[in-house]
Amino acid sequence: MSLSGELIAFIGLALVAIVGGVLLITLTKVVHMVIALVFTFLGIAGIYMLLSAEFVAIVQILIYSGAITIVMLFGIMLTKHQENDAPAKGGWGNFSLLAAIAGFAVAVYLGIYNLDIPVQPTALHEENTKQIGIELFSKYVIPFEVMSVLLLVALVGAIVLAKKDDEEEEDRS
């Protein structure tokens, strides 16, 4: 395996995504966790760019890094929560976490190292967005519409639940 610019970019983006995920799990303040989640999303979007999936990378940035993160921050700011510091793990807790991560990394490496995938001719780099649009609106139009209705129902349900909490709080005052 030769060291190329693409490999260096992949390793850098993968490290950003992994470090963001680990920080997301280990940080205690919610706002810091959301920022770590943004780094994870951006690292994954960069990996999509390396895979020539520009549309998916832009959607990853717009939807996840932008909209979902903003919604999470608004949710954090609009809800009342107490910041309780979790008790710190002992030395054995950190060691077992490190051992589990190392074991997973070894298992993934051994699983991928000798993987033999036959080469097939594809048209990957030709009009990605057009191919996604044709697939989405021809074969998968019904699941696409069902998902949009499901998201609308979830939004209405969230508004109803938030309104009910406000009414209960007014009754208590």
Q: How would you describe this structure to a colleague?
A:
There is one protein chain. The chain is mostly helical and 173 residues long. It contains six helices and no strands. The longest helix has 32 residues, at 141-172. It is flat, with a radius of gyration of 22 Å. The protein starts with a helix and ends with a helix. The mean pLDDT is 83.
Topology:
Elements: H1 5-26, H2 30-50, H3 54-78, H4 91-113, H5 128-138, H6 141-172
Helix pairs in contact: 1-2, 2-3
Strand content: under 5%
Overall geometry comes to flat
Low-confidence stretches: none
Q: Averaged pLDDT, please? A: 83
SS class: mainly alpha
Number of strands: 0
The number of helical segments is: 6
Q: Report how far apart the termini are.
A: 68 Å
Summarize the structure.
This protein has 173 residues and is mainly alpha-helical. It contains six helices and no strands.
Describe this protein with a few key phrases.
173 residues; 6 helices; 77% helix
